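STRUCTURE REQUEST FORM
Protein name: Leucyl aminopeptidase
Source organism: Sphingomonas endophytica
Requested output: structure tokens
Priority: standard
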Amino acid sequence: MTDFSALLQPDRGQPARDLHVVHPDRFADWLAGQPVRVRTAVEANKVTGRPGNRAILPGEAADDWAMLLVCDEPLDSPWRIASLADTLPEGTYRLANGGATGAAGLGWLLAQHRFTRYRKVEPAALRVLLTSDVAAIDETVRLAAATARVRDLVDTGASDLGPAELEAEADALAAQHGATVTVTRGDALATGYPMIHAVGQAASKDRAPRLIELEWGDPSAPRVALVGKGVCFDSGGLDIKPSAGMRLMKKDMGGAAHALALAALVMQARLKVRLHLLIPAVENAIAGNAFRPGDVLTTRKGLTVENTNTDAEGRLILGDALTKAVESAPDLLIDFATLTGAARVALGPDLPATFVQDETLATELLAAGKAVYDPLWRLPLWDGYDDMLKSDVADMVNAPDGGFAGAITAALFLRRFVPASVTWAHLDTFAWRPSPRPGRPKGGEAYGLRAAWALLKKRFG
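Status: completed
Returned output:
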């Protein structure tokens, strides 16, 4: 993983090149105050003050130069100078005129992250940003590392990341922070976690299903449960996906990646909580013992589920994991899942569909996302659609016919496993960026991670 700590350093007056970041509305005034050599360079580069304009500005000496970026991003945006971190020559930089780095440090770091597992690349140019916000450096570095963890896990091919590798990630976190890990694997799931077993039983032995649990912190502290969907590859099962739909299914463990990254942030900051991380990890494979459309599955909670679609498997494994989580009466429960295409149709890739029963939690969570530029969008747990889950032969179906309100009915399915007394949020997140933006390459991406972390810090920091 990228060593982000080397890229964000305290500003102690060491030599560095200036970054002039100017808002379009202030560009004319800024230019008028510059010496002739700067105005000449700006004109030669055809900089007109439009967002994205940039130019190298000559200094008084031959080897002295600075950088101009015209930017309309707000001052507190993480992405304000991310485009520079990806393009400037190797060196040390600071915002001109003592400008506060603020959240822009995060974008600076993430712009220099590279996923290099499968290809040889030239050694990365180190672009160091100096900041006077010394107290924020550690937090910014941890956030960048957590985001990179999600990206790297999601970008890894399914041949190299199965249930065992997710277990290894949890083991590594536990060893680093003094946590304990408990794993229930293979046929041992059949009685305690029958839906996890049913979904994962067709995979090969080395990719056997499992429920991974990590516990950390003072047992007397408020209990926080994080659940992440860990479908390491989703063929669709016997309701097999077309090839186009299967192409990105290495990312179907994106919920687990988010939960692991958030757990790491909690333990690194030593929040005063009792952390309970749960990852149901499976591969939804096809074999003679694969679960079938029409099968009636039992659940850890005791409900029965008519399986109407083997490609709606994520909610099944989450049902058993949520049941286990609520048995310990958590003060807060958050689950992350790459759950429905319906959420993406409604909201696109950038906005995780967010379902919350508690109004106070909903207000805090949405506000946290807005404050840290990690937006969420709330959808309703609409009681009127609960009847769509009715079954003729079981307590409920996993996937209603008709396709209406797919993200909502999936959330309503999960709600069957969470008592109303539990403060719970469900984030249906995409975990993938289809096209690049400054600081945010195409590929695996963390959506909702920083919002959830801001909430946890506010409640338990």
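Reviewer notes: The longest strand covers residues 274-284. The chain has two domains: 4-132, 142-460.
Form closed.
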